[in-house]
Amino acid sequence: MMRISAALVLSLLLATCADRQHRNPLDPAAADVAFVVGELETRAGDGQVELHWDFSRFDDITGVRLLRQTITADSQGQDLVRNLPREVVEFIDEEVMNGTTYSYQLAIVVEGEGERRLERTRFASPGTESGWVADVGSNRVWKLAPDGRSSVFGKGPFPDIQAIALNGADGSCWVSDRFLGGIVRISPDGQDELLDINLGEVGDLSIAPDGGRGWVVDSEQRRVFSFELEIGTSDSADVNEVDASFAESVVLSATSGGCWIGDRAGRRIILAAADGSRAGEWLQIEQLGPIAAGPSATELGEAEAWALIRDGGALIHLAADGSTALEMELPFSAGVALDVDVVTGNCWVLGEQQSGSIAAFDRTGTLLRLWEDLPVLHDLAVDGENRQIWLAGGGVVWKLAIDADEAVQLRGFGQSVQIEVDPGNR
């Protein structure tokens, strides 16, 4: 067995939340998490926090003390202490509340030397939510813990990820890959299965928020198909083809009972019903970009959507009832991504990747919120139920509290290009 010495005691980073400017909540100097491997690892879950460490190889350590503090405005000392034998290497803390942040620290008892508290402190915030990230650098799709501070698992490799989409009904993540000729479903616990619907070259992918149907672009056939979310072969899957042909650059955003289809080359947006018929069409759309469906409506005729146009220079709001599209200017030169808060119906737009910004608009076009001078970002996902925004950029994922301007970050990705969020409140 190994023995531990004072020089071998790990002195690891504790990053604390500093005062931050309201205009830049993602200032790295204000982040409270660094993605490093240390002697104590935490992973938040739903109503619990899993903790792992391992000092069992040191024969002069006689015990381990686990210390926890609840992070509140009036926090005073540890509120949980567990004395554990050296052989124990994990602990599940179930005396926690979702949405509350906890700090954890270890102390080791060394034979003949007494107790030494290790400097590294880990934070965890349990909850029901989780993020899913498409990382084209590692060719994997990652599921993240509720607080965004750690990953739960990564699935892959996927040779050429085109899109990921969340099924809000069961929390599964669906992946389209240009080389697979099908769509992969990843269950919340990490099981993956292939849905074979005889596609040529898959492109964008979207899932209705109620889990009713999925929609996928076949770039080879220049078609869009809707399908049942049922794993099996093309003989058993219920597949419908949209009554339209497309050239290229087709984007999707599903809603209950249908899907918004953006056709950049055709300068149009189509609202398609589940059977493939057209429920609406908007023409002469200039330089169309991403689309985001609004909150699910009872009837397809009540559906709404937002879209970036003019190469991200403006934002439009569409209503399926045929009302005139509302166009609004952005407070930055170009938007690169957008998402809709399904609770409020507000649209959040991510600005330029360099020295970026985030802006929120209501249905009338009123600018509600603006953050500026952000890091390089590629995509965002809004969780209106938990009042959070998840952001992907380069090798980092951020989780930002809308109301408190508090952010955490998780590093270690290759190139995170798309993010989806599951509120988890089913």
What does the model show?
The relative contact order is 0.12. The protein has strands at 41-44, 49-52, 61-71, 80-85, 90-93, 101-110, 114-124, 130-135, 140-144, 151-155, 161-167, 172-177, 183-186, 192-195, 202-207, 213-218, 223-228, 239-241, 250-255, 258-263, 268-273, 278-283, 291-293, 304-309, 314-319, 326-329, 335-340, 347-351, 356-361, 367-374, 379-383, 388-393, 396-401, 407-411, 416-422. Residues 1-38 have low confidence and may be disordered. The radius of gyration is 24 Å and the shape is elongated. The protein starts with 40 loop residues before the first strand and ends with a strand. The strands form 9 sheets. A 4-stranded antiparallel sheet has the order 4-3-6-7, with no helix packed on it. It has a 4-stranded antiparallel sheet with strand order 10-9-8-35, with no helix packed on it. Strands 11-12-13-14 form a 4-stranded antiparallel sheet, with no helix packed on it. The protein has no helices and 35 strands. It has 2 domains: 6-22 and 35-124, Immunoglobulins (Immunoglobulin-like, Sandwich); 130-422, TolB, C-terminal domain (Neuraminidase, 6 Propeller), CATH 2.120.10. It is an all-beta fold. β15 (202-207) and β16 (213-218) form a beta hairpin.
Write a brief caption for the model:
The chain is mainly β. The protein has two domains: 6-22 and 35-124, Immunoglobulins (Immunoglobulin-like, Sandwich); 130-422, Neuraminidase.
